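On clarity, I found the account of how folds are encoded harder to follow than it need be. What matters is that the chain and its backbone geometry are given together, residue for residue. For the editor and my fellow referees, an illustration may be useful. For illustration, here is how one protein appears when written out as sequence plus structure tokens:

___
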Amino acid sequence: MSNDIQINLNPLNSNGEEIIDNGVINTRESRPAGTLELIRTGAAPGSVGVTMAPFPDPDFDVDVTEGAAPLTVQFTDTSEGEPFEWFWEFGDTTTSEEQNPQHVYDYEATFHVQLTVKNHAGEQGKRSILKSNLITVGGGGGTADGDFLVITTLGNMYRWTSSGGWSLLMDVSAIPGGGKISTLVVFNGALYAGTYSNGRLLRYDAGVWTSVAEPYPSTTSIYDFAELNGELYAGVGPTYGRLMHWTGSAWEIDCYQYSGSRWWRRAVPYNGVIYGTGFIRKPLFRTAGLWSEEVGPIGDEDMALVMFEYNGALYVATTYNGHIYKYNGSGSPVFLGTVQPDNTDGWSASSEVMFNGKWHIGTRSGSVVKLMADDTLVEVIEPFSYAWIWGAGVKTMAVRDGELWGAVENHAGDISRIVKQDGTLWVEQSTNPPDGGRVSRLYNWDDWAAYL
């Protein structure tokens, strides 16, 4: 598609008439609101070709994704759109502004890498790509000890290790206002939590949660965090679905939910705005001023808990029939198929994680499928074979030392176990959480230890 546009140099007056005065544009005449003005004098009226700089499309390759420390990784920029500025964040607090940097990882952990590029489109044309859990340093070979930060459905926070089992880090009774921790985020170098049932924003300081933002009226739960342009946002509900913006001292409404839905269940930045999904057969939507706008339907579905950006597109997988859709930034989401291998309905999508450069989707059958570059799905872990698993499946997943871990629960909610991939199977690793709840969130301990 050409980036050339033709602009008519003959302006209009308030009556819609062209203004021509010996080849001179009379700029003192009124213009309709939003009219682009070009001033040209001493020449005949006409048109001019203007070349618009396209936004960049960031991407990069690496020569290795895992190994023992110290691990040297070569990063190669493959971005399109002729960027001339690069900013790399390697996930270990170090950065680079080279186009194709080489970086050494000195300690064992799993690292996210983000590249931000800029071209002649200017500051508004900055674009970023984040590849989560891309680099794994240490362990490997299936011998690493499990070590995870765990949030349970009752709001307690634990550390769980393969060798030591469960250790309570924070009792729900210590959370201000009586809420339950629902999700975590690191923002501006500090650990924050959103709460379920009272909608507070908490900050973790030296072992104590402090309430830094009171719940906004009619907001009872924070479901998801999103960061965009250095600002923190949260999808909330359930009484009224909204996207909230944290000012640094309080919540303010950034955008109301798509009409008729009570949840802003997921919040994912894509193409410079935040996209969301709701509840009770609502479409994919995005921010558009104070009110969100519909992007397109995602089937006759209950809601979508799985949403992520991959290779310049937005993917959404639904919780009821396990349908997966792809949105390229225009038109409506395109149906790709289902997460069930025979492409029939039945397995709902419940969780996602980036592992070895590919997005993996956990299902309510206990299986895991991998999204390939050609948008096909490949089953990598079979449905969980234990009889108690029916109906709930893979609640959450995490990556540690080059291995895929998860938390699997049964439909009744009385069994919840941490599991690890072994070939095409899940293998149980833990007992139930001691508080009697279920594992809600599973985080690689190394990614969060510095903040605890």
Notes: The radius of gyration is 25 Å. Helices lie at 445-448. The first strand starts at residue 4 and ends at 8.
